Each structure stands twice: as C-alpha cells, then as structure tokens.
C-alpha cells in the first residue's frame, strides 16, 4: 500500500511540475507578444494568444482526467479586456446584420432621437434594429449619461469575443451634459446625428474623417451612402433577416 501512495505522489509531483513549467512558458510567451507588438491592438493580440494557449492546456488536462475549466475562466477575463481596449477593433460586428435594442432613457428628446436614428438605419436596408421592451433580451442598450469629465457627446462600450470578432453586447449612451445644454449649440438634428453615430459603432463601424455619420466629430452628418456601403462591406458574407421593428 505504501508503494502505491509513493507512486501516486510521484505522478502528482510530475504533473504539478509540468503545470508550473507550462505556466512559466505561457507567461514568457505573453510577455514576448506584449513587448514586441507596440500597436494599439496589443492587448487584443495578447488576449488571443492567451486564449489559444489556455485552450491547449485545457485539452491536455482533460486528456489526463483533470477538468480545470481554464478556457471558460480566461474567456471571461478577455471579454472584460475587450470592453476596455477592443470595442472599435477593425472588423468586429454582429453575426448577422441585425440586433435587438432597448431604449433605456426617460429623456423624451433622447427617446425620440434614438427612435429616429433607428428608423434611419433600418431604412438603409443594410442593418436592422428591432426595438424590444425587455432589457434582458436586448443585444444593445441605448441609454444616457451626464458626464462633463469626458469630452464626448456620446459613447459606445462593447463586449467582444476576440476569437470570433463578434459582439456579444453593446451599450451606447447620449451625454446630456453637452447635448441638453443650450450653450453647446446642439440642435435636435445634431442630437439625432449623434444617436446615428453611436448606433453606427454598435453596428461595428469605426471613426473616419470623411463626410460621414461616423466622422469623429459625431454630429454634423447624418447617414451617408458611404456609411451604408461600409455596413454592407462589413456584413458582405451575410444576408439581413427581415424583422419588423416594434415601436414604443
């Protein structure tokens, strides 16, 4: 019996040493990627490498009868990382050119602006927003903020699967600190343009400096033909599913 315990102990020591060595190699590999890739998407590269390596580790431990759920745990961490760094990464989009959206604001001006912006995007035929009344079922939350510490009339935050480059959830906000203060000169038309701009981010569009709703200034242009073509190009491998848009 003592011999059996010694054998078991020996194998456990080997496994843990292998685990320690593997983790060390993993950390060195991640450090190499991080410092050798000085680009704006460096964090995304690190996350992708981490997920790939951890998936292989998970497969190895599963084959040894050790179920660690490493891949699942790391996926949660990288989703948080994508929130902060990869929400505007090139090529990120929904699986199909359609998404459900919940309007989460009591401001009547913002409610009307969001509805007008949603209708404008739907009329392009390039993307379909479906308004829902249950916040828990929405892919996109269209809300508001009142924050003078940021220099933007609106913002978009996303959760993204870095492996598939697909959105899992997006929150857009209109900033009443600027939009509702007369001294900043935002007409209703410019508020609608801002809503269209933020919904463009929720579709997957990035900033540009052209005559476009996605111009970085964010409020001087409505949806242009170039924006429609950009959406079609982004979703060129998919066909929009016709959906009826519910009205509040």
TrEMBL record:
It comes from the Bacteria. The chain crosses the membrane at residues 14-35. Gene3D superfamilies: Collagenase (Catalytic Domain). Residues 105-235 form the Peptidase M10 metallopeptidase domain. The keyword Metal-binding applies. SUPFAM superfamilies: Metalloproteases ('zincins'), catalytic domain. InterPro entries: MetalloPept_cat_dom_sf, Pept_M10_metallopeptidase. Keywords: Hydrolase, Membrane, Metal-binding, Protease, Transmembrane, Transmembrane helix, Zinc. This is Peptidase. It comes from Streptococcus oricebi.
């Amino acid at each position: 019996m003592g011999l059996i315990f010694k054998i078991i102990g020996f194998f456990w020591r080997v496994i843990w040493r292998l685990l320690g060595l593997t983790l060390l190699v993993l950390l060195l590999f991640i450090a190499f990627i991080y410092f050798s890739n000085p680009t704006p998407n460096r964090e995304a590269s690190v996350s992708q490498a981490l997920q790939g390596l951890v998936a292989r580790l998970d497969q190895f431990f599963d084959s040894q009868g050790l179920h660690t759920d490493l891949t699942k745990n790391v996926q949660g961490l990288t989703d948080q990382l994508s929130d902060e760094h990869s929400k505007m990464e090139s090529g990120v989009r929904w699986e199909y050119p359609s998404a459900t959206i919940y309007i989460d604001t009591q401001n009547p001006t913002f409610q009307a602006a969001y509805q007008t912006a949603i209708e404008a995007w739907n009329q392009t035929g390039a993307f379909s927003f479906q308004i829902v009344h249950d916040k828990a079922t929405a892919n996109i939350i269209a809300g508001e903020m009142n924050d003078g510490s940021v220099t933007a009339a609106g913002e978009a935050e996303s959760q993204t699967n870095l492996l598939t480059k697909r959105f899992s959830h997006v929150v857009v906000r209109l900033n009443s600190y600027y939009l509702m203060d007369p001294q900043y000169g935002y007409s209703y038309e410019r508020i609608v343009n801002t809503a269209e701009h933020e919904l463009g981010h929720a579709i997957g569009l990035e900033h540009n400096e052209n005559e476009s709703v996605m111009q970085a200034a964010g409020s001087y242009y409505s949806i242009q033909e170039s924006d429609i073509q950009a959406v079609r190009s982004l979703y060129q491998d998919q066909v929009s599913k016709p959906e009826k848009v519910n009205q509040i």
